[in-house]
Amino acid sequence: MDYMIFLGAMAALIYGADFIIKESERIALHFNISHFVIGATLVAFGTSLPEMAASMMAASEGKTDMAVANVLGSVIFNITLVLGLVFFIAKSMKPERDLFSKDSAWILAPVVIFLIMIQDGVIGRVDGVIFLFIMVSYLIFLFTSSKEELEGEIDDSLTEKFNWFKTVLMLGIGFAFTIGGASFVIESGTSIARNLHVSEWIIGLFLISLGTSLPELVVSLVAIKKGNADMSIGNIIGSNVANFSMVLGASSLIEPLKIDVQANSFDILIMVSASLMLLFILANKLYNKAGAIFLLAILALFIQNSF
User: Fold this and answer.
1) Which runs of consecutive H residues, i.e. helices, occur in the chain?
2) Cβ of 304: how many Cβ atoms within 10 Å?
3) Distance separating alpha carbons of residues 69 and 17, to the nearest angstrom
4) For the segment 241-281, what is each residue's pLDDT rounded down to a tens digit?
5) For 199-248, what is each residue's pLDDT tens digit?
6) Where are the domains of the chain?
7) Domain spanning 2-151+161-248+259-306 has what CATH number?
8) CA pair distance 46, 215, nearest whole angstrom
């Protein structure tokens, strides 16, 4: 029964996030916000809502290991699995945006700050406020530096006549699905961990983080199908910034997040390695199967060591 509840709750998380993303896009289009900003903010942050809901719920229930592991696992899966598959499947990727010069700092800075914060074994409330300031800084950066528009990532159905009642209703349903789904994911995930004698860290690192990374996977694959390489990669960069700043920041305000750095050093090393590999790929424009192999190799090492 726990497995059925877990799968059903995960589906609610994903569908809830989908509702929120689509309705947020409608609002943005209604107010003539550029397509690039929509993709880099609403879509990227929207696909991180499942991680945020799951980690905040875990923190509120005192399962801080699960909250941190969910973020680390999501960052790892976003880069290695999602971008690995995108690079492997895409026939040709030629992003118009100079991703390395414009966005590399936003890949590296949250990772470095995270590594500094965990040296005392706790991500406290002050650390959480700093993370939230990073999110605000990222939003300011996007809205002030990104003038170009990305065409094609928004579904044509979103341009239909704007209806405030329908939009607010669907947003409400989306948030209800996301928050409610997160609660059941944590409870059923914890129960599964106990039955299998697996730590909450592993459950958060794999079951929950892999499931909550599905929205990023779907959005990125759809973007590639529409020929929008910038949107696909930008979604992952934005989602990872949101995972550190918004998810860890908000969760640590609820309950300081304890992390055993020594016991989980390999998982932290994999997260850092994946981030550095992404920088290497952006710097050398390896948006192809070669880049995919590098990322999927890191994923294979991660899975092999964990199990």
Assistant:
1) 2-30, 35-37, 44-46, 49-60, 64-77, 84-89, 99-117, 125-145, 164-196, 200-202, 209-212, 214-225, 229-242, 249-254, 265-284, 289-306
2) 8
3) 20
4) 999 999 999 999 999 999 999 989 999 999 999 999 999 99
5) 778 877 887 787 778 777 777 777 777 676 776 787 788 889 999 999 99
6) 2-151+161-248+259-306
7) 1.20.1420.30
8) 9
